[in-house]
Amino acid sequence: MTEHVPPRTRLSNEPGTARTRPPAEEADVIVVGAGPAGATTAFYLAQSGLDVLVLEKSRFPREKVCGDGLTPRAVKTLVAMGVSVSEQDGWVRNQGLRVIGAGKRLEMPWPELSSYPGYGLVRTRLDLDETLARRAQQAGARLLEGVTVTGPVLSERTGRITGVTARPAGEEGERTYSARVVVAADGNSSRLSVAMGLRKRDDRPLGVAVRAYYQTPRHDDDYLESWLDLWDGDRLLPGYGWIFGMGDGTSNVGLGLLNTSAAFGNTDYHALLRRWLKGMPAEWGFTEENRTQPIRGAALPMGFNRTPHYFKGLLLVGDAGGMVNPFNGEGIAYAMESGEILARTIVQALARARRAETERVLAGYPHALSQAYGGYYTLGRTFVKLIGKPGLMRFATRHGMSHPALMRFALKLLANLTDPHGDASDRLVNGLSRLAPNPE
Ligand SMILES: Cc1cc2nc3c(=O)[nH]c(=O)nc-3n(C[C@H](O)[C@H](O)[C@H](O)COP(=O)(O)OP(=O)(O)OC[C@H]3O[C@@H](n4cnc5c(N)ncnc54)[C@H](O)[C@@H]3O)c2cc1C
What is the mean pLDDT of the chain? Predict the structure, then answer.
């Protein structure tokens, strides 16, 4: 077990140092998992002066299966945390989304908005996640790497979670860590949530995607590329794919399927990826010889597919709470945004004098999430149902690709990029999201 000391001297008036530190096994808040959701939650909590203990089973830098694509929405969250996103610091910028489908190719720059920057980024999760975890440490969070949380500790009297048990790497037994509230930021499987009885909802969308890296001349593409239909010779394969240039000689190439597709449960995803790539131009180099890493896959929990987000002292954030955008499979921005929403809720809750008041504030977290995403995710769930039908998907692709203005609207809708008082298309997306029911 290693406790990383933030790489600078702390001053007495900085967050986390204003009072005597509790012993290592106690904290105001325990955050389980230091992916984008956990690191962002910890960052904002520590910035507000709370004592935050982050328990992470792996050690940074570590891999995470991902497409590595960041839209302007994600860029905004990084900038807000003071992360330098310059090209000198290794970030690869993109100007927009190129969509390929129905035999056509459409390049759409990211929309010009006051609320979001006009560019996206690409960065490996090896780098991105470590950067975020170190930002949390710099803000004062205590990060323990190599510590696997094994279960909740519950109050016998109330059934509330009062801490967790965990196994630090290299140690024989388990340790117990306690806190006033516990955050589940442990990703899609969220064993901590499951141990508290919170399972994935069958009525909410779930994606499965695989990805691999290939050495390719396309590595410095300045557009994210999205394929709406995947061809295997003259046969249409289920799902859709992406090619994101990493700027380091390789591209991240992958494809995904939704649980609304008939092929979802009975598909060999690795073989599907290989078959799709066989049809690509040879000069792109998406061959087995050029693959630099194993093909790996994981699930994308979408549209609030685990609820409630607050239950007996446990708060769910990011993938643990199923917060991936059902329209486009983007999860990093939502993990970080929900982390900030959660941190602000906890800070207010723990500042209340009486336990009942604290409880009332914490209980408002699901509502805050639903205010932020509820209507939009309801639209997303309908979208996912529709595109699960191959005939409808083909019709929409053919129709959409012939109407660039419609596709520009679709880009705003699918990437959730609008201004509150923007142009007509912004107002339409915002209006639809507002009108859609927003269950928690
Ligand atoms: C193939 C694929 C491609 C994707 N592409 C994109 C993309 O291009 N852009 C995008 O925005 N999103 C993408 N996503 C979604 C994105 O990866 C997730 O939404 C995002 O990682 C969620 O962040 P998180 O912090 O909630 O969870 P995670 O990133 O999964 O982090 C969870 C953390 O918890 C730790 N942990 C788990 N269990 C324990 C335990 N018991 N004890 C201690 N620590 C624990 C893990 O080690 C991990 O560090 C993709 C997903 C997949 C599967």
Answer: 92
